[in-house]
UniProtKB/TrEMBL annotation:
GO terms for molecular function: kinase activity. One of its GO terms (cellular component) is plasma membrane. InterPro entries: Beta-lactamase_Reg. Keywords: Kinase, Membrane, Transferase, Transmembrane, Transmembrane helix. The chain crosses the membrane at residues 48-67, 150-172, 193-216, 274-294. The lineage of its organism: Bacteria, Pseudomonadati, Pseudomonadota, Gammaproteobacteria, Pseudomonadales. This is Histidine kinase. GO terms for biological process: response to antibiotic. The keyword Transmembrane helix applies.
Amino acid sequence: MVLVVFLLAYIVRRRLDAQDRLSGDRLWQRWFHKHATAPAGKESSLKAGIVLIILPALLLGLVVVFLDDYGLRVLAYPLEFLVMVFLMGAPGWGDTLRVYADAWRRGDMQGAWHHVQDRLPAAERGSALSPDAMHLSLSRTFMCSVFERFFLVAFWYVVGGIGLAVLARGIVALSEQWPQSPARPGYRRLEEIVAWIPVRLLSLTFGIAGDLAGWLRDIRRVLTGFGKNKDEVLMISANGSLTGYALDPERFSRIHPDEWVDFGGRSLRAVRDLLNRSMLVWICLLALLVIAGLV
């Protein structure tokens, strides 16, 4: 049933994303802003945020255990389905990438930056970004967003159930939306710990879903680079797995100068297709684990 619950939640979530509906980020934001408290001088403390994500995770875990003990495990699956729909999802990205690609095709780099500036990390929102740097920053942010909102949730749901899935997604929300900004770096460090295994599993999946030969050349930098964060792991492995220099704008512009106007949209389509194929690989792997009786 884990496979069925995840598949149904994934399908529903993708449709909601296409309609830009039901943002889980807004729910986390309201939860944090309503209950977040930090005494003066302790704005960097992580305790309040950790408590706020442990409570719903623990409550859901206890509900599932209670239903399982009383032979009512089947009643937990609808609950898990609803929670997974809320946990997953990256609404709004479709429209953002579409208008960005259109602006790039017109050669309007200032307009392209205007459409995506709110999506970029705060340190990279300056209008002086070159087209190459802007595009790589957007690609990295997009891949990380999809990883955190789909692959990370899926991994911990399969490994530890709905409670761990809520906990993992909650840590991501804390690193992005916790009201006291001094605490966010600490939450980001926790996020790196939670993401360490699943992001490297996804990087291995890129080799199956993409260009295996190119991936083999770059994957050593990921597997041997224990100090690399999830952003670097995703960019390195995705760059090796994609053909046509999809994540190498400088080289693409030298080799295909006449096709530069199409680079933005072409690159983003390649990244999206790689992520979609990778999710298909994960679903197939989960199906094999179910058949083998390991899940």
